[in-house]
Design goal:
Layout (H helix, E strand, L loop, with lengths): L2 H15 L21 H12 L2 E2 L5 H4 L7 H13 L5 H6 L4 H7 L3 E2 L6 E12 L10 E10 L2 E9 L9 E9 L4 E13 L25 E5 L9 E9 L4 E11 L1 E4 L2 E5 L14 E14 L2 E12 L11 E12 L3 E10 L2 E12 L2 E10 L19 E13 L2 E11 L10 E14 L3 E17 L4 E18 L2 E15 L3 E16 L2 E21 L5 E21 L3 E10 L7 E9 L1
Parallel strand pairs: 1-2
Antiparallel strand pairs: 3-4, 3-29, 4-5, 5-6, 6-7, 7-8, 7-9, 9-10, 10-13, 11-12, 13-14, 14-15, 15-16, 16-17, 17-18, 18-19, 19-20, 20-21, 21-22, 22-23, 23-24, 24-25, 25-26, 26-27, 27-28, 28-29
């Protein structure tokens, strides 16, 4: 059987039906070169930046975590360093890596043995003119990380607009990285990601993305909570014991959560973290005790997780108990050309599961994935299939990557889902399909990116007489970027249309943007202007301060611009300023200032 022909046939079928996404989350795939990744990728890069990879000793698997390095470039690095050590960026140029790639990976690599200590701090102020009349309208953020040998200490604070307390949100942790039986210990606030994200994901569940390798990830992660996102952190202690035969992770957490209450019972969890009215702040105490056992068996890794959760209030829906016991089994079988990943979780006679099969053949990489998430299954800490998926869903996903050569890549997927029973949530999707296609054409200095897709889904608009609204959406985006010495010029065109039944309502929108980046080593200037004409909301991400993304939605006619300035001085300091102007005054203008210090 010719597997390549089978892959080619599947590609042609999907190309026939693929004409893009309606979900704005898919925008993350498009601006690849601007570090706009899914949260999981951001988390991995953030961790590597704190502990850069030594290019003279890092394994091929470790180097592959850097998205700018493909198999060819990794092979070049490993081959070159066997003859003589790589000592600086000029060494990378000499072995044949292009300057753009080197510039991207420099923050994440080192050439010599790492120093014993590191101090990193961020201070950020943000202001939006639409909040001018709001009490204490500044948004403030600070992060301090201190590392000494095997220890890492972190402290983060954030105050949103309208909040009076400058310590409204804070995170603190002490982390120890061992080498023997005690592998890692974290005291304070931390986050967990186990298995495929059904029990613990911390906003890093499996993403619906053309980069199908996202499903094949490290099945366990525990780290100090250094994010400014004010939900899903755990507070207490976690420890990882490691032996040649098994790994054991006991953990405990007791922390305050924000909840919406109905007759003094929990109706939902509040995720925004904004506390203008302190009556909802930490009005619920969550206590978690858990244990995870990991058993590596050659190419197979099996893990068991059990957690006991207690909430200080009862739930409005009696199906959720104040005391909850959840358990799960996840596994990963890696045979190079094919990988099988999965997780099955259990709660109150309900079973949720997700399983994926990744298959590589020549230039093709395939993913077949099935998921089942039943009605009323707890998903506060877990994410069944990124944030776009709700409970009560059955779905199937097929993804295909084709790497013709380093300069030509094709990514496509087909996704379908169904909600078997809808009795409790108005406007919940009842069924839908999604088709996606992305084509990347790149040379050393130029890159062309075409994204298309189509989404069709149903929503109940009236539960009483079972009226259903069909939404048929098409989106397309075209971007072209070109690098000339110290300049990067990018142009983009974004189109979206929606057709809604039974109203027979047709809406469409168009957005064009021009992006310019000037890199003068210590001084980097970027600017972007977007013009739009739209009947429907068009979602766009604009370059903000490092560590932030300016998400904006546009409709009507208008334009928006962003100017970003970054200046490094005295080798350890960096100041950055971002200004956003909007022709729609109601949307407000934005100013952000950030100071970074790294030693």
């Amino acid at each position: 059987m010719n597997f390549s022909r089978i892959n080619l046939a599947l590609t042609l079928i999907i190309l026939r039906i693929s004409f893009i996404m309606a979900d704005p989350t898919l925008e993350n795939l498009i601006e690849y070169e601007q570090l706009q990744y899914y949260p999981e990728q951001l988390s991995i890069l953030e961790e590597i930046k704190r502990n850069p990879l030594n290019v003279n000793s890092a394994s091929a698997l470790e180097l592959k975590k850097l998205p700018w390095l493909d198999d060819t470039k990794i092979s070049i690095i490993i081959t070159a360093r066997t003859s003589k050590p790589l000592i600086n960026r000029n060494s990378l140029i000499e072995i044949g890596l292009n300057r753009d790639t080197i510039k991207e990976i420099i923050p994440y690599i080192r050439f010599q043995k790492q120093k014993n200590y590191a101090i990193s701090s961020r201070y950020r102020l943000e202001y939006n003119t639409k909040d001018a009349a709001t009490f204490n309208s500044l948004k403030c953020y600070q992060k301090l990380l201190y590392e000494y040998k095997a220890f890492r200490l972190g402290f983060v604070t954030q105050k949103d607009c309208g909040e009076a307390d400058y310590l409204d949100f804070y995170s603190y942790f002490l982390e120890y990285q061992g080498e023997n039986f005690i592998d890692k210990v974290i005291l304070g606030k931390y986050r967990l990601r186990f298995g495929r994200g059904l029990l613990f994901a911390s906003q890093t569940g499996i993403a619906k993305t053309a980069n199908i390798a996202t499903f094949n990830r490290d099945p366990a992660l525990m780290k100090g909570y250094s994010s400014s996102f004010e939900s899903w952190d755990l507070e207490g202690a976690v420890i990882k014991f490691k032996t040649p035969y098994f790994q054991l992770i006991p953990f405990f957490s007791r922390t305050g959560l924000d909840a919406s209450l109905e007759d003094d019972r929990i109706s939902s969890f509040r995720e925004d973290g904004i506390h203008i009215d302190d009556s909802n702040k930490n009005n619920l105490i969550e206590t978690i005790s858990g244990l995870r056992l990991i058993m590596p068996l050659s190419d197979l890794k099996i893990s068991l997780t059990s957690i006991l959760q207690n909430y200080s209030r009862e739930f409005a829906e009696p199906v959720f108990r104040k005391d909850q016991f959840l358990s799960g089994l996840d596994f990963s079988l890696d045979k190079n050309d094919y990988i099988i990943n999965g997780e099955i979780c259990y709660y109150e006679k309900k079973t949720a599961g997700i399983i994926g099969f990744t298959w590589k053949q020549d230039i093709f990489t395939n993913l077949f994935m099935f998921r089942y998430y039943p009605d009323k299954f707890p998903n506060w800490h877990g994410k069944p299939y990124y944030s776009s998926v709700k409970t009560n869903e059955i779905g199937f996903h097929y993804g295909l990557n084709i790497k013709v050569n380093p300069g030509i890549k094709i990514k496509t997927y087909f996704d379908t889902w169904k909600n078997p029973r809808v009795k409790y949530w108005e406007k919940m999707p009842t069924s839908g399909t999604e088709e996606f296609l992305q084509i990347e054409l790149g040379r050393k200095k130029s890159k062309l990116n075409l994204v298309m897709g189509h989404t069709k889904k149903q929503k109940y608009i009236n539960i009483i007489d079972s009226k259903i609204r069909d939404i048929d959406s098409f989106t397309g985006k075209f971007t072209y970027s070109h690098s000339i010495h110290k300049f990067v010029l990018k142009s983009g065109l974004y189109f979206k249309q929606e057709y809604i039944l039974p109203e027979k309502k047709y809406q469409k929108g168009l957005l064009f943007y021009q992006y310019l980046k000037i890199d003068l080593n210590d001084l980097i200037l970027t600017g972007q202007v977007s013009c739009y004409h739209s009947d429907v909301l068009i979602y766009s991400r604009l370059p903000g301060l490092n560590g932030t993304i300016l998400n904006r939605q546009f409709s009507g006619d208008g334009f928006v611009y962003v100017i970003n300035l970054k200046y490094k001085f005295l080798s350890h300091f960096e100041v950055q300023m971002a200004v956003l102007g909007n022709s729609n005054k109601e949307k407000g203008n934005y100013l952000g200032i950030q100071l970074k210090m790294d030693f």
